[in-house]
Amino acid sequence: MPEAAPTFPPLLNGHNVSSKERPLDRARARAMSGEWGAGDLVWSQAINRLDFALVLEPEVDRARCAEMVYVTMVAFGDAAGALIPPEVAITYQWPNVIQMNDGQIGQVDLIVSDEEVDGIPLWMVLNLEILLTPDVADMNPGENYHRTTMWDEGCGEITRTEILESTSRHLVNVIHTWSEDGFKPVHELWQGRLSKEEALARSLVDSRSIPDGARFIGVDEIGNGLLSFKDQTKPYAVVEILNDLRRQAKIAS
Fold first, then answer.
1. In this structure, is residue 35 part of a structural domain?
2. CA distance 155 to 151
3. Model-level pTM?
4. Is pLDDT of 212 > 90?
5. What does the pLDDT look like over 231-248, one tens digit per residue?
6. Residue 250, in any domain of the structure
């Protein structure tokens, strides 16, 4: 039985796509063509995962756009935290991974327009994908032992529509906090859920997007990850890291 269509906050305009189409691809194409703008949110009809992409029109320069990755992670953490049992832990790994009970359940992606005016990109698209229930056809325990789903962690009663509606509301609220008070309060909320077991995402280490043996130190005032390697600390831009991970995933597929 299909789920009811979600209801979004007034600032968001929802569009749905089939379970076979990626919301990120649709949102990126419509943003590039100028058909969609700030607040257009495209969501997948798939019920085994939460997958949506939100078009935004930045008012900050390219270097600060990565702050939206942290905004999205915090929004999901707050949204899920209000729905799940209190004993279930939600944590983050830098730069974009969301965990439940130390297993990866999803990630955030961000694509920023190459076109800009006075250093400000014309658009950017945020993407959040969370696994709600196992996809039996794709399960490979040997390769995916570090991944899990909300169902596996005892949150199977939460539907795609419930978590989508809750996340969209919290996302609007956290964006408002960011616009009024800057990145600092968002950073503090994100830091509060940073994984104490393994701060760096496994995909980042496996892809060699960072030096082998690098250690995560923290995040600077605009969201760059600070990594220590051979007694030197260097900032890594989140948008560049995500672009590299996306390219490598495309090559691998």
1. yes
2. 5
3. 0.94
4. no
5. 899 999 999 999 999 988
6. no
